[in-house]
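Complex 351.
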Amino acid sequence: MNALLLYCRAGFEQECAQEIVDQVYALGIEGEAEALGGGGAVLFTPESAQAMARLRKHVRYDELAFARQLVFVFAHVELSGRDRAGPIAEAAARHGPYAAVWAEAADTETGKPVAAFARKFEPHLVKALEAREVKCDARRAPRLHVFFPDSGEAWLGVSDLDNGSPWPMGIPRLRFPREAPSRSTMKLAEAFHAFLGHDDQQRLLKQGLRAVDLGAAPGGWSWQLANRGIKVTAVDNGAMDRKLLADYPVTHVRDDGFRYRPAKPVDWMVCDMVESPSRIAQLVGKWLAQGWCRQCIFNLKLPMKRRYEELQRCRAILDAALAQTDAPFRLHFKQLYHDREEVTGYLCREG
Ligand SMILES: C[S@@+](CC[C@H](N)C(=O)[O-])C[C@H]1O[C@@H](n2cnc3c(N)ncnc32)[C@H](O)[C@@H]1O
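Predicted structure with S-adenosylmethionine bound:
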């Protein structure tokens, strides 16, 4: 069995499938992608099994907006008897050692009881693997994923430590900070983890930097920045949280986010305005191309239909805006766990 397994937000299987087919087609590889079972996961099967080595080398998790996890599948196991750990350990043993062993299920309503079963099953599987002398906490090995569409079958595969989500089921465990003025704060907190490695977070989110937050009210995103000592100009015609303005380095400017210009270039621009995605993409492209900010995190609220095409349109708008400058840029999109009908973008000027 040779395939790619991608976890995604329930309801976004079609976008996730379109995206992986497009990505591998660019590598000269064809195949079919289908939603698995009750949703929340997509299986891509290449036409030729020989393609797997190239897929493992070239498909990048960072470049997939709709995938929460990227698993290279090596087996499918039907589970009929009472012993589930034995047959799975048998199939997984020859691909070890592993850095971690994760038994997972889809993040859907029907997946909830399966996820509860998977959590309980995981230590039994580790025991069964260790009994076969397979290390399950090796430092440089890939992670083993055992994905249960239901408790009667499992897809087995690996994810590479530098090419996948570091969270089980691709879902970050982040605490909601009670001081933050809105739940939206979780999106920016997650975006920092998704787009910036540990060192970049230390370097790029520190005291003394300056940021502009477009569409800031009531202030959940501003809080994430200001809580790290970053001076924030919060642009919104709506009301900001008063405690945020009193206790943190946040200045409220009542203005239209499409008209506002910073007096001096800033380190960050973040944008959570509810607007058409292409208008936001144009605005973000302008901020970076004009040098008004060095980097940007922004949310694109996707339409009900043709969401993948809309995202591609926004990429093209940004590419066109940035092509007018000589500076190299890095652009990534991810549908974060805390995103709903939306994706989050990260654009930064390199060097
Ligand atoms: C989803 S809310 C932002 C929530 C915010 N990120 C937080 O964490 O609390 C969207 C905000 O965008 C603002 N907005 C929409 N269009 C705007 C515009 N053209 N200029 C400025 N703000 C705008 C709205 O007033 C609203 O407060």
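The chain has a mean pLDDT of 96.
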